[in-house]
# Entry
Amino acid sequence: MQVVDLNSSRYPDLLKVTKNPPKKLYIKGKYTPQIFENCLSVVGSRKMTPYGQRVTQRFVREVASRGITIVSGFMYGVDAEAHDAALSVGGKTVAVMACGIDAVCPSFQKDLYNSILELGSLAVSEYPGSTQARKWTFPQRNRIVAGLSQALLVVEAGYKSGTLITAKHARDCGRQVFVAPGDVFSSNYKGICQLITKGAKVVTSGLDIAKYYDADFKANFGAGESQGRLGIFGNENRKRERPVKRNLDPAEEKIYSLLKSSSLNLDDLVTTLGVSPSSVSAKITSLSLKGLIDERGGIFYVN
Amino acid sequence: MLIKVLSAASIGLESLKITVEVDVAKRGLPTFEIVGLPDKATTESKHRIKAAILNLGLDFPTSKKITVNLAPADVPKQGSLYDLPIAVGLICLIYDINLPENLLFFGELSLDGTLRHTKGAFLLALFAKESGYLKIFVPKQNLREVASIPGLQVFPVENLMDLFSYLKDKSKLEPVITEEFSLDLEGGSSKPVEEFGGLDMEDIIGQAQVKRALEISAAGGHNFLMIGPPGSGKTLLAKTFPSILPSLTLKESLEVTKIYSAAGLISPGGSLIIKRPFRAPHHTASYAGMVGGGAIPHPGQISLAHRGVLFMDEFPEFPRSILEMLRQPLEEGEIIISRSSGSYMFPCRFILIAAGNPCPCGFFGTNKVCKCAPGQILRYRKKLSGPVMDRIDLFSSVHPVDLDKLKRFSSKKVKGESSKEIKFRVEKARDLQKERFNSLDLVCNSEMSNKEIGRFCGLDHSGNLLLKQATELYELSARSYFKVLKISRTIADLSLSEGIKENHIAEALQYRYKDI
# Structure
């Protein structure tokens, strides 16, 4: 564990320039100041829908795999999903804890906490020892989450939620706020709609976010260096050229193209295609084994 | 003056002979006592008997000391069935009638001398036949139930007066004799124990996957868990399940009837149970209610579901003790209840259909917002892990059918497959299993142990390859691996295929337990 003082050169610069930076930052994990160079904060609802989960996983993976650190608040829901997604592509992540540096809150996420530290990422807190998380420490922590990054991505937010507090902090510090669009009727998107009307930028993929960093980077350091350091466009091109070798039979092809347009459950597939559930089940298995589709709670979607 | 009349008692599913000794003493204070561990209902029979005999205008030795002993005296006696043998004993003593030997009596008396329907008659009659007491006298309302047993001379008694005439001069009563057991009893014989308005699978719109899972469950006797949000139709689907189960065989019907007789659940005028039982205990059911219990144990819900279906709605809401308790019955197909007075065995070979929500509020993992705290969800889920889950082979998630689809389909009158068609396939698959397990003590694929799985679930090359690939990708445990094989066997049986093909395994893989 390390303690970084506000006056220290090792204190994250972006956080230093905010209105009310913590005087001391307690850090667990292998700390090098580079980890705070390019950061994206990702926050969202604790009560994430399956759609929100997919968005978080997809966007964060795309961003984190380009060397951008993912900062979040280690709460269950979108926060935990963001940490997990960053680790899954070998990216870096920073968990800003609402409790003391020696505690883990929520405790049932101990496994995630351990893998964050084991995989070379950080847990930080402004509270020493095993201070308990309180109602007020969560919004306090939000200012650190917002302050550590150049930009904030909000995935799902209710009408009155802590997520909106983080967004407010980010805006106050002049950071870019991105939102992932969703269902305007869902209570989980009331906050998102609010942010959009206030000028948050809608993004539809992690690449949109990555481009922002790249442009930002170019403005500061010039294009050449940017590619060398971050390699954003290089990665993107490679991804586009990925050869798609599918080898599907006609029935599989049909199911695959249906799932491409929207995620469906097995029953929907059966009624749309008009074939027996047993053959759809078998084809679904084969598509899933080929790694083309995935499933959550009985709903299938294209990977 | 002393007379002995034969009757019988059942404890659990076992029966024993009871000798009713009636003594009318010349001396002593006028009393009427029943001894031999009678319970309250048995003790009160003296009032019924006295009133009935007097109301029929017959003599009653009011001023004598009457002692009735129910031998063996150390076995507790329950119920009102000794009314008839005691009354017969008294009448024979009063009117000096010579009672022929080896007649067996039981039945409850009404105050006007008529006989009422008596519980447990089937078990007692079965005992009578096995012990060679072939002439038995029963209340008329028990006739169909008792007369379903072949080889007995059953005398249906409507009124004590008729019996009096018969004993005096062999008039009034004619025995009913059945040639052999038959399930085609006129008039539907017994009412199914729980009727759900004849639900048919064709009436359910959509839900193709769950219907298919139910079909597999019925064909292979696999236990099935479905998980879905409230209002997705889980209960409705479960209720159609009995309609696709194969019909009861005679042997099974006798087993079920015995249990229902012991529980006193055969209604007046009822006979053999010919429909598979469907029991749906509420999740507040007590331990004794589920397993069976009482000082002299009565069958519980799991035994009442024998050869049928035990539907546990809101499965994770059941107390942990009950979920743990299910483990042994699911494996052994019987439950042994031990009391200080002895051990009682009740069979309980049923198919478990369980339904549950993904979380306490029900909307976790759907597009509606879940209102549960994560701790709540964890605790709820924990109930779904552990030993009882090892006994469940099939899993499926259930999704609500959207309103548009419901409207569209109900207006078009598009119907799915009827229960009759599915039942036909199920019965064919069961026939195949019967052939396969001919030399073994198994009935369904679900009962196969790992050894039998190895013997009967061989895969071809492509099947092996597919399963290996899936085991790696889905990180299947050894247990899930064997479950997939069992389900594949049943799917192959349903398509009347000798070997298990690649597509059978591919389908079976969709019914594995997936974390939500």
Q: What stands out?
A: Residues 36 and 73 of chain B are 4 Å apart (CA to CA). The two ends of chain B are 77 Å apart (CA to CA).
